[in-house]
Design brief:
By secondary structure, this protein is an all-alpha fold. It has 2 domains: 199 residues, no CATH class; 243 residues, no CATH class. The chain is 78% helix and 0% strand. Helix 12 packs across helix 17.
Length: 501
Amino acid sequence: MSEDPAFDGIEAPPDYREVAADPRAAARATLTVLVSRVVVAALGWVGSIIVARSLSADEWGRFSFVFALLGVMAIVTDLGVGRVVLARLIDGDPDEIARTASSFIALRTVLGVVGYALAVGYVVVLGYPGQVVAATALAGLVVVFATPGHALSVLYQSRHRLLLVAVAESLGQVVQLAVTVLAAVFAPTLLIFVLPAVLNEVFRLTAKGIGLRNRSLGLRPSRHLDVRRWGPMLREAIPLAIGLALTIAMMKIDVLMLSLLDTFDAVGQYSVGYKFSDIIDTFSLAAAAPVSTLLVAAWPTKLDVFRQRSRSAAMTFAVAGAICVVAFWPSADPIIRLLYGERFAVAAPAARLLVVGAAVMSLIVLGIFLVTSAGKQRYYPAIALLGLALNVGLNLVLIPRLSYDGAAISTVVTWVVTVVLLWAVIERIMPVKGLLPVAPIAALVVTTAAIAAAGQRVVAVWPWSWPVVSVVAVLALLPFVYVVRMVGRADETSHPDAVSP
């Protein structure tokens, strides 16, 4: 019997904070999402190869520019609201959760429409060719549908229930690839090739929306649209929104500047390199999402757990990035020739640098999620602003001289400076010290550079050996997988001395 007989027989709602803090659920969610990302990345890669081989160099450059521009629109469509809302979605009040969910979805829908308008306005105002304007207007529908779709993913993330999200995104990519193949066979034109991405996002949004009807999630949105909640959501997210906007600008400004300072052909060559680096970005974002849920649940009552999860995640991200670098660096030329054709082989040096940049970027992503989980996001915008200014300045100098190679150099330098500044600030502002395992990561960087350089020399002498060299290079890094486990085990115990008074 309860103290109030009126509540007898009524099952109490689950403790969603405990659900969010479950590391096993987070591990399952991470594995589910990573498998999905592998499927999506592989199918997306095949689709990009089909498009690149079907269009002329100039049209492929225009296609790549349009989707790079739409990526920039995340500046207004994301705003970091999802990371702020995450803590409210594990609230103990079901009505609060429902109202938060409905308001969040509605806000993201409005932001998607705003992002679409800005993308189309950009190409119109700057006088881009009519074909680019038309392609942006059509492909921009991706932003309209994807923005609320990402809001639904955040809802599922708050429960570590990401299986439906993974299935929906994988099947959506299957739809996109199937339509891309049909377009290549029957109508291989720029405007037709942007349609599959739109259909993909429509499918994903529909599937995720249907899944929310499952009452066991405790995420069914309220029928009441409380617009007044938008203000607090946006105000709380302002520091993170500014930082994320500047980060997205850092990530995409090189393509936009390349389109203005060089040709669409150069954009196309450069974008081939991004197809490889984007895979690392996709995986790091997928893995960071469940990690952020664990960090939110541990802060601020379990600082030793917070430290352990930060260090383990950092080491895991670093090793994953290093594996990608040593596998790709020696074999960049033959891989690009094999997949995209001889005309894109000249972009191999830029592709190598972009993959290195993506590996560095994974630690920036983790750092952003970490400061957000601890409510310290106000410190990040200044770092991101400095990074953006550095990137723009380097691009203005290097693109006219080195074209897309100059853009790649600018990107790597920018990310290296940003990751050093970000983690230095984290070490200074957080009450928990040693959140980044510096010594193991430094050893990993030196080892990665040596293996990559040696592998490139071997392939230069025996070009046919590139598949073997890449495999051997990855195997050479396997001891660091053991280091990851050791870092995790060492941090399983509490570290009172790591917490500042």
